[in-house]
Structure formats: C-alpha cells, structure tokens
Amino acid sequence: MKNSEILARAVAEAAGLPLESVRASLAAFIEELPPGHRMNQDRAQAEAEQLLADLRQEMAGIRCWLLEGYLDAVAAGYPPFPLRRPGLWNTNGHAGTAGDKTRKPKRHGSNRKRRQ
What we know:
Helix 1 runs parallel beside helix 3. Helices cover 48% and strands 0% of the residues. The protein is mainly α. The protein has helices at 3-15, 19-31, 45-57, 59-75. The chain has four helices and no strands. It has a domain at 3-75.
C-alpha cells in the first residue's frame, strides 16, 4: 500500500468524507509536490496496517489538524466550505440531530392587546 493511500484512508475516516473524494484531492496535492517526495512509496501490507492502526488512535488530533487547516484557509480568504455531516448539525446550523423538531418555537410577542 502506498503512503498516499494510507493518508487518504486516515483523512477520510477522520473527516467522515468519501474515500474517493479524499483520494482525488490528495492526487491534486501530490501533483504539486517537488520531486523526491515519498507519497508514492510502497509499504509492506503489515507495516501499512500498523500505520493505519496508529493513525486511528490519533483521530482526535487529525480532526483538530483538519479544522486548523480549514480555519487558516478561511482566514487567508478562501471561500468557506460548509462543515456539514449528516446527523452532526440540525437544519438551523446548531449542534444536534439533523431535522430536530422536538423543541417548540419561541413565541415573540402576543396577540393580545396590552391593557392601558
């Protein structure tokens, strides 16, 4: 297994994105790397599986790394990418279950006339 495949699998699992989408983005990134990079270096199957297992132990750190990169990109002026995963955000953009309708809407004001 190549280093690029190991990285793609780890990022896809951490971000909750489809593996094919991550592979495509990573391929575009690899094209821009200078000669001599090791992203296309093959690893033995046992070594690759161990590296993936180690990366899975670091999922929280990988998620933080991805979020920091996202925030840096937005701060640099890149258009923000919607951070949505099914079930992570409800339809109002707040944490909770998607489509959460258990709360009653707040009423603002009253239909009654005020007494004078």
